[in-house]
Amino acid sequence: MSAPPNRAARAPSGSERGALVRARAAEAVQGVLSNGRRLEEALSYEGLERSNRALLRDLATGTVRWGLRLEPLLDDLLDRPLPRREVQVRSVLLVGLYQLANTGIPQYAAVSATVGALPGNKRWARRLVNGVLRRFARESADRLAKVDRRGPATRTSHPQWLVARFQKAYPKHWERVLTANNGPPPLTLRVRGDLPAYVQELAEAGIEADCVPEVPSAVRLAQFRPVPSLPGFAQGRVTVQDGAAQLAAPLLSPRAGERILDACSAPGGKLAHLLDLAPEAEIVALEQDPQRLDRIRETLNRQGLEPARVMAGDASRPVEWWDGQPFDRILVDAPCSGTGVIRRHPDIKYLRREGDLATMTRRQDALLEGLWPLLRKGGRLLYVTCSILPEENAERVSALQDRHPEAAGEALPEKWGFPYGPGRQILPGEHGMDGFFFARLLKEGS
Ligand SMILES: C[S@@+](CC[C@H](N)C(=O)[O-])C[C@H]1O[C@@H](n2cnc3c(N)ncnc32)[C@H](O)[C@@H]1O
Q1: Is the CB of 421 under 6 A from ligand 1?
Q2: Calpha distance 344→185 (Å, rounded)
Q3: Does the C-beta of 286 come closer than 6 Å to ligand 1?
Q4: Ligand 1 lined by 244 (C-beta under 6 Å)
Q5: Among 162, 247, 291, 393, which is least packed, fewest CB within 10 Å?
Q6: Which positions ≥6 away from 336 have C-beta within 8 Å?
Q7: Which of 240, 286, 288, 367 for mutating ligand 1's site (highest number of atoms within 8 Å of CB)?
Q8: Do 114 and 99 contact (CB within 8 A), yes or no?
Q9: What is the mean pLDDT of residues 82-105?
């Protein structure tokens, strides 16, 4: 008698794998939309091979990115609203619509894999999912045109409050910002050695890349690549960092012998850059979240770097950690809304609330106010955010200057961004970079 087939050991078929990827994408989407989780945390890649991991990331990221357009589209397609408890079915439907509306995945594959993604206890919804997706596929042009008539927030999948803030801050550029926020983020590297030689090395490995004219240390890859497979990554010769983030450390012009504070340090990207520029400086890294100290250590270990000190502490309360020795330079890479990096983190569209802004700006004021007295006369403080909201940027720095007339704004290079109050703003997508704000203050007096 032959042994019965071992079902547990059977490799999943292609269609089972396709359904599993959709199911995982729907889980992650549900995590963000219904449970307020960060997309990175909600994604589970376990048991998936490399190509399916990439597909999962694309499906989940894309569905969240376009969710605020896909949701009204879905509501229009449903004959009756889904009961609120059916969040799983709703997420599966959104992943299905994303594939049909925004990707080139063939309709048959998209629909069958999405129907297959329904969990066992939701088999009753197979007809519904199949019917809704097929209806959309038949009527997609009209359906999309109809939903887009609701206005720019829906058309570009943004929360209305954010669009209103962008319109107010950038009357001429807000539409460009909305478009850039939905674009694919480039993979940019900071090269720690000879940049032209590294570009050549990439070319020899068949990887197309360009220098970034505004940023001498940056190389931008033409296509996404798994980072660990990049030449020199394991040895720490290159590190992943957007071009705009690479502007920060040189703006502080750190020098040997100076005492420098990196006040909001984790995960340590700008700290590593500071250490590269001034290995003989005394650089102190501070981070409020003790759990994120390991992220700093990982970043530095991979690059073979070591600052003078890495410590946990609240930068706005120096009495708890400061030794009383003034700093020559202070970097304040402040926690912010992240509205300059929405293309990298589309979950910001769902997770950030307008009401969060008041808390953010209070924290930013407290950071600046707490740190300013630690700067020696003649010293420099660089305030940086990855926000494009003036409330978190120019307004915070101007408020500090109102309280401290000795805080003199310094000119910044004109080859990137544009002046905004006492600093310069880069909008997302400008020069291919993330949206960042920079202001540099000199402490006057003798
Ligand atoms: C924008 S991130 C910094 C990124 C980092 N500079 C880099 O380049 O990799 C802001 C960091 O500030 C930390 N943070 C927030 N409030 C803080 C405070 N009051 N004191 C110190 N760190 C703080 C956050 O935990 C977060 O790790």
Answers
A1: no
A2: 6
A3: yes
A4: no
A5: 291
A6: 360, 364, 385, 386, 387, 392
A7: 288
A8: yes
A9: 97
Sign, Cα dihedral of 336, 185, 143, 106: negative
CB 393 near ligand 1, within 6 Å: no
C-alpha–C-alpha distance, residues 60 and 347, integer Å = 10
Cis peptide bond prior to 267, omega within 30° of 0 = yes
Which domains are present in the chain? 10-157 (1.10.940.10), 187-240 (3.30.70.1170), 245-443 (3.40.50.150)
Residue 9 has a pLDDT of 53
Beta bridge partners of 241: none
List pLDDT tens digits, range 165-211: 999 999 999 999 999 999 999 999 999 999 999 999 999 999 999 99
**SS3 state at 192:** coil
What gap in Å lies between CA 444 and CA 378, rounded to an integer?
6
Judge whether 10 and 101 are in contact, CB under 8 Å: no
What is the Å distance from ligand 1's center to 31 Cα?
25
